[in-house]
Amino acid sequence: MAIPKVMGTEIEYGITVKGDPDFDPISGCVLLVNAFREDHAGEILWDYDQENPLADARGFQVDGEKYTPNQQENIARNKTLVNGARYYVDHAHPEYSCPEVTNVHDLVVHEKAGEKVLEASRREANALLPEGTEMLLYKNNSDRKGNSYGSHENYLMDRRTSFKQIVEHLMSYFATRQVYTGAGKVGSENRSQPCQYQLSQRADFFETEVALDTMVKRPIINTRDEPHADREKYRRLHVIVGDANLSEYTIYLRNGATSIVLSMIEDGAINKDLALRDPVQAIKEASHDPTCKKELQLDNGKRLTAVQVQKEYLDMALRYVSGRDIDDETRDILEKWQTVLECLERDPMELDTKIDWVMKKAMIESFMDRKELDWGAPQVQMLDLQYHDLRPDKGLYYLLERQGRAERIVSDAEIAAAITQPPSDTRAYFRGECLRRYGSAVFGVNWDSISFSVGDEPIKRILMAEPFKGSKEHVDELLNNSPTAADLVRNLRS
Q: N or C, which terminus of the chain has less Cβ within 10 Å?
């Protein structure tokens, strides 16, 4: 029986400072992250001791050294927020990792809350910049200089499901799901075949099928084996193949359909041979075809479009849930998945209020018609970038939203609340509440632990290996009976 799909996302944002010819992205990121202030006191470390980025899911350890910053650098580059999220500097980008959630609705809420956190930070950081300069942030995946930065998804899976089986059944799904998860892009990059417009910002940057790397020779399926939970029971599937989406509908379908497919893999419900002959080539071919009519070569000799491959997965999903007692969200995801695939087969432009790449394409083509421009015009590339601008008054996605031309999944009130409130049904609740209540006593934090500095005693690390433990239902009484961190540590021992 498939385990519940606890999930989260990690979004790296594009950053620049307009008017500053000497812009240093790392310094800009440090300024940005530290510009976001919360009420809890204390300088809190991110606990790198609990991480092992060199562990490979195929059963071995990769040679290399784990990077661990010194204490001062750690504090400067990392913030753990009272909503359970991590906000930090990752290489030359600000990154927001949302707290663990148990359902796709909450995933959308907390990913969108991340956008608000970044924009609030940007405004505060701008007040500290020299006159005539302005920091700009983009929720996208490419700087047009050959660099791509990630939008990663994470899903809790049963450790008993072999990684070989996961790869076998996911490869074709990941290579083709961009028909509804792509953020859209004008032109191509990374030495890919030229095109006017494509579905995905990331597709051009994938160069191999399976590997541990996330920055060079990017794989369609990443093998990082850091479960951030009980290693004997769980694995965390670290998905790097997706785009940074702004459309709530796209985010909802992206994580929802993927969660269903992963449950099907755990339950042995994938029973069709959909293996692609060359997945790396196929992901690019599918991305470069906004008509969604390009046929991809399968290993078994058949040729199917990306939409047809997705329909095969959907058909298996519908059979999988047939006769099962499924929740309303799963039913809604399946209905939306089916609706989107039918529209894509008929005319992708029917999805111009739902799917990012279609919304962007419709907006750009309308502009091109009015101005009598072609795809090579610099104004068109600027529109492409401006779609992802986080400024509410400048970003073109937000313009569509204000005009009622972007279908919503969650409310503004839910997003606003998620900036300061953790999910109530995972360990993120315990993490966030400990920061809110005992911030000055928190020494270090990781996804699966929190450490306290209590008086003259040695640092006390509390392990949180079970993602469902630490929920409001599980720990509220404990927290309410623990006025101080010392009380909490004592009560946990008793």
A: C
Residues in the chain: 494
Using one digit for the tens of pLDDT, what is the confidence trace for 24-58?
999 999 999 999 999 876 789 999 987 877 787 88
Which residues fall within 8 angstroms of residue 103, CB to CB, at 6 or more apart?
Answer: 329
The DSSP annotation for 435-447 comes to HHHHGGGEEEEET
From the candidates 20, 56, 90, 332, give the one annotated as an active-site residue.
90
Which residues lie below 8 Å from residue 438, measured CB to CB, with a gap of 6+?
A: 452, 484, 485, 488
CB atoms within 10 A of CB 459: 10
Amino acid at 289: D
3-state secondary structure of 361: helix
Q: How confident is the model at residue 377 (pLDDT cuts 50, 70, 90)?
A: very high
Strand-pair partners of 218: 206
Per-residue pLDDT tens digits for 386-434 = 999 999 999 999 999 999 999 999 999 999 999 999 999 999 999 999 9
Query: What is the rounded radius of gyration, in angstroms, for the C-alpha atoms of the chain?
Result: 22
> Is residue 90 flagged as an active site residue?
yes
Q: Which domains does the chain have, with CATH numbers?
A: 7-38+81-417 (3.30.590)
**CA nearest neighbour of 258 among 349, 359, 176, 201:** 176
- Is the Cβ–Cβ distance between 247 and 354 less than 8 Å? yes
Q: What's the pLDDT score for residue 303?
A: 98
**Bridge pairing between strands 7-12 and 93-97:** antiparallel
Q: Strand pairing of 45-46 and 442-446?
A: parallel
Classify burial at 78, counting beta carbons within 10 Å of its beta carbon; exposed 0-12, middle 13-18, buried 19 or more: buried
The structure tokens listed for 295 are 């046929």
Contact indicator for 83, 431 with CB cutoff of 8 Å = no
Cα–Cα distance between 198 and 492 in angstroms, integer? Answer: 54
Contacts of 375 (CB under 8 A, 6+ apart): 186, 187, 196, 197, 368
Greater confidence, 456 or 348?
348
Nearest to 437 by CA among 490, 467, 481: 481
Q: Give the Cβ contact number of residue 312 at 10 Å.
A: 17
Distance of CA 212 to the CA centre of its chain: 18
